[in-house]
């Protein structure tokens, strides 16, 4: 993918999440066009609970940085464990919704383009959900250098992402190393192109190992990829 084309898609990706902010919860709650019947809805929420249990076991305590915090479904979980959270997102509309859900007593909100953001602090835990798949492959190493810069010595990382395309609403996904993009449609019919890379646990574990990270990457049966780890030079899990 050419640099100008990628920059254009990344700009469109931010515009998409700005426009989708009020619809995002429909996806997470399996409502409207994301409701594929009670059986699949029950399966979705059972796997959400599975990932929540893994996050609880991980115990994201201390000072936490949440990258691409979105409308706050996972911020809500982090608040249970963290002393303080810095929640960063490029879309102002999702930050507004997140703030309504989780308040500002334990959360500080920052609007920033994550590909041009320079963290000014160090954190005990860095968390991101459904973000890594939106990082272009040629910015993968750059992103993990950002994580390393923001992480305290002995700090830990936990992430959640999509295991694979979910079905009808994402049938336009093109997943290949040259052009890993997905065409997304809003309720009003508008379409946006975003970066979307679907990782396999084994491959992602090896990719991170090459960058000096020690991670355990797992998946639920149908919907979620998740991982937790730290730098190899630090204490292993």
UniProtKB/TrEMBL annotation:
Swiss-Prot/TrEMBL keywords: Transferase
What Gene3D superfamilies does the annotation carry?
Vaccinia Virus protein VP39
Q: What is this protein called?
A: Methyltransferase domain-containing protein
Please name the PANTHER family in this protein's record. TRANS-ACONITATE 2-METHYLTRANSFERASE-RELATED
Which InterPro entries would you find in this protein's record?
Answer: Methyltransf_25, SAM-dependent_MTases_sf
Enumerate the Pfam families for this protein.
Methyltransf_25
**Location of the Methyltransferase domain:** 64-155
Q: Name one GO molecular function term.
A: transferase activity
**Which organism's genome codes for this protein?**
Candidatus Gottesmanbacteria bacterium RIFCSPHIGHO2_01_FULL_40_15
């Amino acid at each position: 993918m050419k640099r100008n084309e990628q920059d254009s898609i990344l700009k469109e990706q931010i515009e998409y999440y700005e426009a989708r902010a009020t619809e995002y919860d429909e996806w997470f709650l399996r409502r409207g066009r994301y409701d594929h019947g009670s059986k699949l809805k029950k399966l979705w929420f059972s796997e959400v609970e599975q990932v929540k249990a893994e996050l609880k076991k991980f115990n994201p305590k201390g000072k936490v940085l949440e990258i691409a915090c979105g409308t706050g479904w996972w911020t809500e979980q982090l608040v249970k464990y963290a002393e303080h959270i810095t929640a960063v997102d490029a879309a102002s509309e999702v930050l507004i919704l997140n703030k309504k859900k989780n308040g500002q007593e334990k959360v500080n909100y920052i609007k920033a383009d994550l590909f041009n953001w320079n963290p000014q602090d160090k954190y005990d835990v860095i968390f991101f959900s459904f973000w890594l798949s939106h990082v272009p492959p040629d910015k993968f190493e750059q992103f993990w250098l950002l994580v390393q810069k923001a992480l305290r010595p002995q700090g830990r990382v936990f992430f959640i992402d999509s295991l694979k395309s979910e079905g009808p609403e994402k049938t336009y996904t093109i997943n290949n190393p040259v052009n890993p993009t997905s065409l997304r449609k809003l309720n009003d019919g508008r379409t946006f192109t975003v970066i979307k890379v679907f990782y396999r646990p084994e491959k992602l574990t090896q990719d991170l190992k090459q960058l000096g990270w020690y991670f355990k990457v797992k998946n639920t049966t149908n919907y979620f990829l998740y991982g937790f780890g730290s730098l190899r030079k630090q204490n292993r899990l």
